[in-house]
Design a protein that fits this description.
This protein has 197 residues and is mainly α. 65% of the residues lie in helices and 0% in strands.
Length: 197
């Protein structure tokens, strides 16, 4: 698969290029928010997440000349970001990581498509939904760092099994296994509360 960032990366691999600064700025602008999002969900600290962004791109700047396109640049970048985030998370030793209440925004395939929506839920239903989301987030936050990371990459960042494997340096089978373990662990944590739902 052709890497959509290939041209920018090739320019960045030559620090003497007159287009180096512009190319690196383009990569930074494209990925800084995604790196922050991943880092925040792992560290649960905005200041730390901001530091992770800076440290990630400094690392990329130092190592980009050695990048050989064996994976997508974005997968390599995520791997760096996840490693830096996990290191900082271990140092922080803070409480559980909360995931956002909503996933990624989906763009409509057809701008002319009309969607009909039912009236919104009432206050009681909204409260119940928020309470369920809070419990799920607490459950996810109680998972081990390894299982939490694979959940974040899959359901928050929307990466495929193959992309997660590249990021975490493991096989697709291992990714699926970790996700299954994460699902089972999460279900066990929530099992005792399901009667309230």
């Amino acid at each position: 698969m052709k890497d959509p960032d290939r041209e920018l990366v090739l320019i960045c691999q030559d620090p003497g290029s007159p287009r180096f600064e512009q190319a690196f700025s383009a990569l930074y602008g494209k990925y800084k928010d995604k790196v922050f999002s991943t880092a925040f969900r792992i560290t649960r600290n905005r200041d730390e997440a901001s530091d992770v962004v800076q440290e990630t791109f400094v690392t990329v700047l130092r190592k980009i000349r050695g990048f050989r396109f064996r994976s997508l640049f974005s997968s390599w970048l995520y791997r760096v970001a996840v490693n830096v985030s996990i290191d900082r998370r271990r140092r922080l030793r803070e409480g559980p990581v909360a995931l956002p209440q909503t996933g990624r925004k989906k763009e409509a395939d057809d701008p002319d498509e009309v969607e009909f929506t039912a009236p919104g839920p009432g206050p009681a239903a909204v409260h119940d939904t928020r309470e369920k989301e809070r419990r799920i987030q607490e459950g996810i936050g109680s998972l081990s760092l390894k299982l939490r990371t694979v959940i974040v990459l899959r359901y928050v960042e929307g990466l495929s099994y193959q992309e997660i494997g590249v990021v975490l340096h493991c096989s697709t089978g291992t990714v699926k296994s970790r996700l299954n373990r994460a699902h089972r662990a999460l279900l066990e944590r929530l099992q005792g509360r399901r009667d309230d739902w």
